[in-house]
């Protein structure tokens, strides 16, 4: 996209920052994993792995950023790459996440309020929904955090310890920082 519109406002630039922080947290976790842990199957049918959730997050960022780089005004998250190597090899995924962070950082001069259209599949047709870069960045933060919360649950089952803040939305982290500490519950005593 060309940067013929005004530069981003401080509020919308914060959306890029939230995405960068979210991806940095995910990248640190992925980079520290052995491939066996990254590919470990969970669930009755073995469909869930840490890697599949990471790849899914990557796919969404790529769909948006690829579309922007091609100058497209329609964003279609259904047309994802689904690169299986990114769900098999944590170092490759970590490297790809670093690339996404660089691409997001380069959005500094993009037209934040320029009209985008989101293609949303519904049965055999796609709805065309009005959107903007700022709206899609807000979506990507929430979408990533949602999958990171699932990743945290799977990691816990595998004995992987993650920070308490992993998979917690930035708005919740801000709430935790503002909230006064609650008193500890009284200890139970046996009668």
Automatic annotation (TrEMBL):
Q: Where is the DinB-like domain?
A: 23-151
One Pfam family linked to the record: DinB_2
Q: Its domain of life?
A: Bacteria
Which PANTHER family does UniProt cross-reference here? DINB-LIKE DOMAIN-CONTAINING PROTEIN, PTHR39473
Record's protein name? DinB family protein
Which species is the source of this protein?
Halomonas ventosae
